[in-house]
């Protein structure tokens, strides 16, 4: 699943809003449970051209999983912005 956006920043990162990022990320929710698992986040990293997807996805889930359930819930997706900018080759805009 490619990131569809019209804009790129000077550093080559795709630019999207938080809502666009959330929608794109939910496309990786293979079991449609409304949460992003470590494996689903690893798929997003791979699609974005990232390396070491399993390790990075584990770090990403651990860093934003506020309730400790091992998944990224809807309320935690906004906490994933910094991780996404570092590992998913995107720049997130808050509009």
UniProtKB/TrEMBL annotation:
SUPFAM superfamilies linked: EF-hand
InterPro entries tied to this protein: EF-hand-dom_pair, EF_Hand_1_Ca_BS, EF_hand_dom
GO MF, one example: calcium ion binding
Alphabetically ordered keywords of this record: Calcium, Protein kinase inhibitor
Domain (EF-hand): residue spans on this chain: 16-51, 52-87
Pfam families found in the cross-reference section: EF-hand_5 (PF13202), EF-hand_8 (PF13833)
Domain of life of the source: Eukaryota
Record protein name field: BRI1 kinase inhibitor 1
Organism: Hibiscus syriacus (Rose of Sharon)
């Amino acid at each position: 699943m490619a990131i569809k956006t019209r804009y790129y920043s000077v550093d080559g990162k795709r630019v999207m809003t938080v809502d666009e990022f959330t929608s794109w990320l939910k496309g990786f929710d293979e079991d449609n449970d409304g949460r992003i698992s470590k494996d689903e986040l690893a798929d997003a990293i791979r699609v974005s051209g990232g390396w070491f997807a399993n390790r990075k996805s584990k770090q990403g889930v651990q860093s934003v999983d506020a309730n400790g359930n091992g998944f990224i819930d809807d309320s935690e997706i906004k906490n994933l912005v910094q991780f996404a900018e570092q590992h998913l080759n995107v720049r997130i805009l808050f509009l």
